[in-house]
Specification:
single chain; about 650 residues; mainly alpha; Serine Threonine Protein Phosphatase 5, Tetratricopeptide repeat; about 65% helix
Length: about 650
């Protein structure tokens, strides 16, 4: 008799997570334990940051913002000007589309009114707002995924997704950097709009539509990213409710009104919607300025792949993705091609599963919609990428991860793998906490931040410049001469590397001018210093410190004045007259040369050429007469030089 073979047990497909949303009252009373855990994690992971300084763009939005320093009295100026005007004193239009994000800056003005420049309070406010975001996210997810009676209150999609969100290390920049408050407030506004939209659908009270529009407007006033919820909110209503199309459209109306009002205000303040018509050519504000269209798109898709990688495996983390921390790529790069295929695949998956109301389809739509505005595909955002740019988008990844751990894995083989889902949840949460704890101290001050960045952003002109600048500040207060010498060697290394990556980088050239002065103070090598200043002025003519130091050298009795005269002639005639044809600059430096010897034939004849090109023929004749009187043969030198030219 043949032995009977046991039939293999069928693999049970995971049950769909979709269920009509419900509004459950008594949230804080019923779920106080989960709320306490999320709050404790948010505060515990970031509480160390209250000891940190202000860093990076904190000076633009707070510490050196003149409107903020007016306190409450400056709120009117903040609301009616471009967001960088309080720092620069005028609208600079440094980046495409300019910036109008007044709401977080208003909170800084209120802070300043109450406590002055107090980094403890600034960081504490960020932490508390972040904790509130985690709670708010949990509240909304409970509405979308109602808890079943038999479920553990902690091992549910809403809690696990919120847990992953609060602990995710990629959020460290948003929370630990005071300026990151605009991201936190934007998401709070957007989530508030989702919440009131769902409340409206649960009882049809029009007040909630009004509140939805108000919250959406506040999100937009914090940062433009909230506009992507024009897609997210209708998608949420479609995927998680059985609402008919007309009602769904009704929930969008307050969002559209809020958007129109915001855009009209923005236009009235900035003067345009997306572009002033002025092309942004500075590499630090338009990283694609020196790329072809093909290179730009290949590089963009590489950054999109980097975002996916960091959301799943957040290492290494850095605040600096400026040129060329992200390399310039073309479509021969396997990574660019892979990213393109992955993102096409995600889009196809979302479309194919749209009618099924698949949760993963919703996650993909949420992710791509919120990422679109910062992807550099729609319009340039001023840098290749930034970890804070996926702060909102990370919700999609956390939600997908929660579904995987809570629903998909435990449902395999009749629930036998539930313990694996629990283990993976614990593993990711603990790993995220450990990475966040390791990352947060980098934001303590300028030096610690730049030391951390240079490890992983060594090919960034900005990271090298900022590292050199931070060290130079330490160098200026250091008393030990041996340490000063070693520090100066490092400073030279970082600034040289920055200019090697981007020779026209204004900030690096400005820093380089200070370093040249420090080098001269140590070695007294005038020729080396003058060669360095020539290099600087050949790149940028508006480095103030160069002229200040040259004047110092010119007035020093120990400096070879003939070398100074020859250097000014070289600047005025060779660089600015012959090469650049900057006649005003040429006249400026030739005039300095003439101060050493007002009868010098070369300087006078060169000045006559400059005046002639400027159109001041009377002065041109005067300088020419002096030159020929001093040396009748000087004209031969210039004729031969012009022929060589």
């Amino acid at each position: 008799m043949a032995k009977q073979v046991a039939k293999p047990k069928p693999i049970v497909k995971p049950a769909p997570v979709y269920k009509k949303f419900t509004y459950e009252s008594g949230f804080f009373k019923k779920y106080w334990q989960q709320i306490a855990v999320l709050t404790a994690l948010a505060v515990g992971l970031y509480i160390y940051s209250v000891t940190f300084d202000y860093v990076l763009d904190d000076q633009i939005v707070m510490t050196k913002n003149e409107y903020v320093k007016k306190g409450v009295a400056g709120i009117g100026d903040i609301l009616k000007t471009e967001s960088m005007q309080g720092y620069f004193g005028e609208q600079k239009d440094l980046v495409v589309g300019a910036r109008y994000r007044p709401l977080s800056i208003v909170t800084f003005a209120i802070e300043y009114q109450m406590w002055g420049l107090n980094p403890v309070m600034s960081h504490l406010m960020n932490i508390l707002l972040y904790a509130l975001t985690g709670i708010f996210l949990y509240r909304i997810l409970l509405m979308l995924f109602p808890k079943k009676d038999e479920q553990n209150s902690f091992f549910t999609i809403p809690f696990v997704a919120s847990l992953l969100f609060v602990t995710h290390p990629i959020h460290s920049e948003v929370v630990a950097n005071v300026k990151g408050r605009d991201e936190i407030m934007t998401l709070l506004g957007a989530l508030g709009s989702v919440y009131y939209t769902l409340k409206y659908l649960s009882n049809r009270k029009s007040l909630y539509l009004v509140l939805s529009g108000i919250m959406f407007f506040l999100g937009l006033m914090s940062k433009e990213n909230a506009i992507t919820f024009l897609a997210v909110i209708p998608a949420t209503v479609y995927f998680f409710t059985n609402t008919e199309g007309s009602v769904n459209f009704k929930t969008v109306v307050p969002l559209l009104i809020a958007t129109v009002v915001y855009l009209l205000i923005r236009y009235s303040v900035i003067g345009y919607f997306l572009s002033s018509g002025q092309k942004v050519t500075d590499l630090m504000n338009n990283p694609f300025a020196q790329m072809t269209g093909s290179e730009k798109m290949a590089t963009i898709f590489y950054t999109l792949l980097m975002y996916l990688k960091l959301l799943i495996f957040p290492h290494p983390l850095t605040h600096d993705y400026y040129p060329y921390a992200i390399p310039k790529l073309n479509w021969s790069s396997i990574w660019a091609i892979l990213s393109l295929l992955i993102h096409i695949g995600l889009a196809v998956f979302a479309i194919k599963n749209f009618k099924k109301k698949s949760l993963l389809s919703y996650c993909v739509i949420f992710y791509l919609a919120t990422l679109s505005i910062v992807s550099n595909i729609v319009f340039p955002v001023g840098t290749f990428m930034n970890e804070r740019f996926v702060y909102i988008s990370s919700i999609a990844m956390c939600l997908a991860g929660a579904w995987l751990f809570v629903n998909y894995i435990p449902a395999i083989q009749n629930g036998r793998l539930k313990s694996l889902g629990l283990a993976l949840t614990a593993l990711f949460a603990l790993a995220f906490c450990a990475k966040t704890i390791a990352r947060v101290p980098a934001w303590k001050n300028k030096l610690s931040l730049n030391v951390a960045a240079i490890k992983y952003s060594g090919n960034s002109a900005r990271a090298n410049c900022f590292m050199g600048t931070a060290l130079f500040e330490e160098y200026q207060v250091e008393k030990d001469e041996a340490k000063r010498k070693a520090m100066l060697a490092d400073i030279n290394k970082y600034i040289d590397r920055s200019l090697e990556i981007y020779p026209d980088y204004y900030s690096a050239l400005q820093m380089y001018s200070g370093v040249v002065g420090a080098n001269y103070a140590q070695d007294g090598n005038l020729d080396k210093a003058l060669d360095a200043f020539y290099k600087i002025l050949s790149r940028r003519t508006t480095i103030t410190y160069v002229d200040q130091f040259l004047d110092y050298l010119g007035n020093s009795p120990t400096v070879d004045q003939k070398k100074m005269q020859d250097f000014y002639f070289k600047l005025g005639y060779d660089l600015f007259y012959k090469q650049k044809k900057y006649y005003n600059n040429a006249a400026k430096y030739l005039d300095k040369a003439l101060k050493y010897n007002d009868l010098d034939p070369k300087a006078n004849f060169a000045m006559s050429l400059v005046m002639s090109d400027i159109g001041d023929y009377e002065k041109a004749d005067q300088f020419k007469r002096v030159a020929l009187t001093s040396d009748p043969g000087i004209i031969t030198f210039f004729e031969q030089d012009i022929m060589r030219k």
